[in-house]
Design goal:
Blueprint (H helix, E strand, L loop, with lengths): L5 E9 L16 H4 L3 H16 L5 H8 L10 E6 L5 H9 L9 E3 L2 E7 L2
Antiparallel strand pairs: 1-2, 1-4, 3-4
Protein name: Peptidyl-prolyl cis-trans isomerase
Pfam families: Rotamase (PF00639)
InterPro entries: PPIase_dom_sf, PPIase_Pin1, PPIase_PpiC, PPIase_PpiC_CS
Length: about 120
């Protein structure tokens, strides 16, 4: 039987050449995304994560400025979700975090993410 457990999480998504959809609210033509290698996306995300963990930046502020997901408008907040609603690597990472923890870089078909579990 599927678990009814839900988590609430926010994320920052950086899309790259290998992303399923190469466009976003901040790059509607996909010009930047199409020229971003996966390695570049990962290294950008790692440095953003370091700034957040060090307290030099707020997760929500970084998400609203830089995330390629439409959730950027909500500071990266995806709301509550259960199992089977997100891509598997994303879901596994979100469920493994404790509230307030930030994941390492997670890869999905959408791009690369860092996830903050909020509930």
């Amino acid at each position: 039987m599927a678990s009814t457990q839900q988590v609430r999480a926010s994320h920052i998504l950086i899309k790259h050449q290998g992303s399923r959809r190469k466009a976003s609210w901040k790059d509607p033509e996909g010009r930047v995304i199409s020229n971003t290698t996966k390695e570049a996306a990962v290294s950008q995300l790692k440095s953003l994560r370091e700034d957040i963990v060090a307290g030099e930046a707020k997760f929500e502020d970084v998400a609203s400025r830089l995330s390629d997901c439409s959730s950027a408008k909500r500071g990266g907040d995806l709301g509550r979700f259960g199992q089977g609603q997100m891509q598997k690597p994303f879901e596994d990472a979100a469920f493994a975090l404790k509230v307030g923890e930030i994941s390492d870089v997670i890869e999905t078909d959408s791009g690369v993410h860092i996830i903050l579990r909020t509930g």
